[in-house]
Amino acid sequence: MGSAILQPVRTVDEMIRSRTPGWTLDREFYTGTSVFDADLDRVFRRSWLCAGHTSRIRDAGDYFLFEIAGDSIIIIRGRDQRIHALSNTCRHRGSRVCSAPAGNSKRLVCPYHQWVYDTDGSLLKARLMPDEFDVSEFGLRPVASRVVGSLIFVCLAGDPPEFEEFSRRVGAQLEPQRLEKARICHSRSYEVRANWKLVLENSRECYHCGVGHPQYCRAVGFAAGIDSPRIAELDAVTTRDRIAFLAQHGIETEPVLFRDETWFHCRRFFLRDGFSSETLDGSPAAPQLAVLPGEQLGVLAVVTFPNLLLEACADYAMLMRYSPVSPRATRVDVDWLVSQDAIDGTDLDAGRVEAFWRTTAEQDWTLCEENQLGIDSLAYQSGPYSPDERGVEQFVRWYLNQLSVTLENRESAANQ
To answer: What is the DSSP string of 303-349?
Structure first.
């Protein structure tokens, strides 16, 4: 009986250099501990990450914890009404300051030795410390944060990537969706038994949609069009006509495409006839949230590497965030946003709001987990992408560039 030939162990940097463009990544990228550690250090701790929606912290003192890559960040609305992002690590002996995942606190008190912090992170009181102790030097460590379209982004890096182009270009397209007038009507969290890159790669192609997502293909023309030239032709016509209509009403529709040096993408696509929202029957499930001139004017999709997928219809928005847990596990948090004035059971059916993306997402988790099981086998070998997987190749290039840039910087410093 034959057996797989064991390959010599290679470093992350060697695997980066040997990758064939247009082909899937080597097995170790989805299974190896050293790669996972590099992902946390070189990608998640150096990128802008979507932490959530501002409606979670409407009032002064409201906070929630954003957990990523072993770090806990307090996202809190201060008494000054500004949103602050603070490391959830006491400056005394390192205890976590907040243990509840969300809440309201006028002061942040460390449960270990009762050091007291203000909502902006400044240290107010350190009991029994000597008179010469200077509280101004021991506030909670701030974390870089920005808000665009009521989405909160944080970055753990001391020198975060450029943000202004994203804020300007994507912010303009988010504006008509009026997410600042939204609230969360439903949330779900999943632990997907697959590497975070498999989860994200799955979201960057619709090569699998025809069989994997029958409900999605009923609503979304470009998804069904991959297997049907006629649907693709009709989708192109619909897109052209509706883009022109929106332009007449002053709505920004120019796609913001990924470039090798950028981490964000934004475009509006349109639903098939009979669908005015991403619901299973095509009809709205909530009052209109967006200020678009009508209902059947498509979906605004925003993707940011490495952790965000947003799809916003006229009546609701779906906000999905990815967090790596281990080489073979990913946490996915999903929020559904509707008008803050929508009334449950009257003009809002939360079950119908979540059904479309709950169905689609759970189909994806099964596909991702089966993908991981196949890659776990020593029989796995890298294979070529289809032309319909261009989005996956785009992500993989971005991902490897994050690792390579850090590698080059490290090697340059060592040679000086």
So the answer is: EETTTEEEEE-SS-EEEEEEEEEETTEEEEEEEEEEETT--BTTTB-
Residue 415 pLDDT > 60: no
Residue that is written with structure tokens 């509280």 in the block: 135
Q: Which residues pair with 52 in a beta bridge?
A: 152
From-to residues of CATH 3.90.380.10 in the chain: 177-376
Which residue ranges does the chain devote to CATH 2.102.10.10?
49-148
Sheet arrangement for strand 329-339: 182-192, 329-339, 317-326, 308-312, 299-304, 264-269
* β-pair type (49-53, 151-155): antiparallel
Domain 177-376 CATH assignment equals 3.90.380.10: yes
The two three-digit tokens of residue 293, written as one number: 């001139």
**What order of strands is seen across the sheet that includes strand 62-68?**
83-87, 71-77, 62-68, 102-104
This model's pTM is above 0.70: yes
40-70 pLDDT per residue, tens: 999 999 999 999 999 999 999 999 999 998 8
Sequence-ordered alpha helix ranges (H) in 19-84: 28-31, 33-38
Highest CATH level, class, for 49-148? mainly beta
Of the candidates 63, 165, 160, 70, the residue with the CA atom closest to the CA atom of residue 120: 63
Identify the pLDDT of residue 113. 97
